[in-house]
Design brief:
Elements lengths: L1 H27 L13 E3 L5 E4 L5 E3 L3 H10 L6 H26 L3 H8 L3 H9 L7 H11 L1 H9 L5
Antiparallel strand pairs: 1-2, 2-3
């Protein structure tokens, strides 16, 4: 038992000695032993690139996820891989078919439908062509129009009460 306590105290001393040596090394290098958050100085260039300002004043381009995506698209590879691209295409196609179906069931043209729901005609075209997907309130409005078109259009066309 006494031997174990003696070994533990020697181990504790060796750990403290190692820490002291590490602090001495840091002090000799004029470095702090406390971790310091590194500050990154950046600049937005006129062409949209973000560059890092180095200590000597020169600049270095930062890797950008958007630049990586653009490069992948340039070479015909979908960003995020083919699986992500196929999922996005299926979701976009389903949204486009849904938006087109809702409008078709109302028997309105794109221009008439856009005017009734209060959005630009380009928005309806983008939904139906799969360029954009209706999100949030627009998706909810399409569902209401799909279930009860007469009620939805009556509410949308009603003048606000004062």
């Amino acid at each position: 038992m006494a031997e174990r306590a003696l070994n533990d105290s020697f181990n504790g001393l060796s750990v403290k000695r190692d820490q002291a040596q590490a602090y001495d090394r840091l002090a000799s290098q004029r470095e702090s032993h406390r971790p310091v958050a590194a500050m990154l100085r950046v600049r937005l260039k006129a062409d949209g690139r973000i560059v890092e300002i180095l200590p000597d004043g020169s600049e270095r381009a930062l890797p950008s996820p958007l630049a990586e995506i653009a490069q992948q698209m340039r070479y015909g590879r979908p960003a995020g891989g083919f699986l992500a691209a196929s999922r996005a295409a299926r979701a976009g196609a389903a949204d486009a078919a849904y938006a087109r179906g809702v409008r078709a069931r109302t028997k309105l043209t794109q221009a008439q439908f856009a005017a009734r729901i209060g959005v630009p005609i380009e928005t309806v075209r983008n939904w139906e062509q799969g360029k954009r997907s209706p999100r949030g309130p627009a998706r909810a409005l399409l569902k209401v129009i799909d279930e009860a078109p007469d009620v939805a259009f009556a509410v949308l066309s009603a003048k606000p009460q004062q």
